[in-house]
Amino acid sequence: MSNNSVSTDREIIQRSLDQPQAFAELFDRHAATIGGYAARRVGQDAGEDVLSETFLVAFSRRRAFDAEWETALPWLYGIASRLIRKHRAREAQLLRAAGHAKTREEHVSDGGLDTAGERLDAQSGARILAPRIARLAARDRDTLLLYAWGDLSYEEVAQALGVPVGTVRSRMNRARRLLDPDRVARSQRARQDEGGEIDGQVAARA
């Protein structure tokens, strides 16, 4: 088979409706990615359980896959995220431990998450601010980590979680405020100062 005939995820899922064994191709393609994400959030052992359950659920619900999408990754991430919620205590423990380890390694500013629009900064911020991430609401934590660790776009996060893109943006903004309130306050003061300077210049010209 030539490289030009490689099937898309959508084609694999559609083929699996009549040939269930074809679904194994989807596992082979994405298991490492989904398994790595799950392990990062809840540890290796629980992550392997999440991986297995994710593909079992995906197989049973494959008829519900939105055929408008060629890639199944957001769909699989969404299933995994819902399963991860059963391991909330374990995830919180790992996040707190990651935060302590980061503190021991080096002193770092808390400013990382304001740059959530830049994926590498979001990834760094997620490690630095791990204890605060542990205190986020589950839906906000899922949104943040699908973006920062799952490498999904806002549109793909929205598909994964079954919410509008606007909701993803709102959750990211809320996470940013909760995780880095000092930076948000500084930004607000800077805007106020800038507004004051503009008002002063207008008054001087009058």
Can you give a write-up of this model?
This is DNA-directed RNA polymerase sigma-70 factor. Residues 179-206 are annotated as: Disordered. This protein has 206 residues and is an all-alpha fold. 72% of the residues lie in helices and 0% in strands. It has 2 domains: 1-88, Rna Polymerase Sigma Factor, Chain: A, CATH 1.10.1740.10; 108-206, Winged helix-like DNA-binding domain superfamily/Winged helix DNA-binding domain (Arc Repressor Mutant, subunit A, Orthogonal Bundle), CATH 1.10.10.10. The protein contains 11 helices and no strands.
Number of E-type strands? 0
Residue stretches low in confidence (pLDDT < 50, at least 5 long) are 103-117
Here the CATH topology of the largest domain equals: Arc Repressor Mutant, subunit A
Range of strand content: under 5%
Structural class: mainly alpha
Q: Number of domains in the coordinates?
A: 2
The major beta sheet can be summarized as: none
How many DSSP helices? 11
CATH superfamily of the largest domain: Winged helix-like DNA-binding domain superfamily/Winged helix DNA-binding domain
Query: Can you name the CATH architecture of the largest domain?
Result: Orthogonal Bundle
Please write the CATH class name of the largest domain. Answer: Mainly Alpha
Mean pLDDT across the residues is 81
Shape verdict: globular
Region (Disordered): 179-206
Domain RNA polymerase sigma factor 70 region 4 type: 133-179
Family: Belongs to the sigma-70 factor family. ECF subfamily.
InterPro entries: RNA_pol_sigma-70-like, RNA_pol_sigma-70_dom, RNA_pol_sigma70_r2, RNA_pol_sigma70_r4_t2, RNA_pol_sigma_r2, RNA_pol_sigma_r3/r4-like, WH-like_DNA-bd_sf
